[in-house]
Amino acid sequence: METDPSAALEQVRKTVERALQRPQEIRLRKHFHERIEFAPLHGRLIHQPVIKPDSKRLNDTVAKHALGLYYEMMREPLPPEYGTVVLPVRWLDKIVQEDVPTWHKVIHWALTGGKRSIGGGVFRFAFNHAVDNKYAFVAVLMYYDNFIYAVRSFPLTATEAR
Question: What domain range includes position 16?
């Protein structure tokens, strides 16, 4: 849930609202309408409409962005023998506890690499790769100064690579 909107997000909000009013966006409006729930805000009794995000779809999009960043940084595509895994950073307290230290290392390692910002808070990223295996990469992607994802690559098994 967006609890603290950024200036970058506020800049695009009106554009998105106008775009959603276009008649040809009826399916997208229906998609959002089906995902609206009511939830308490900061524990208060006041309720507000909340759109529950389609996490799989968001994570798939972030994975594609990470692959694009890999290509931009390494000047070649990630081979098909490698996959990526995405973790919204806000989920760190919800994952299996023994995986938390690994994700902290992923985030730290990414933040020690190259960093860039696009559009004054619209998109920021940090990227790093292993010295001994250029296909082993990590990245932290931040959208609108609010939505943060950690990504890492991993070698697929022979079955997964098919």
Answer: 7-51
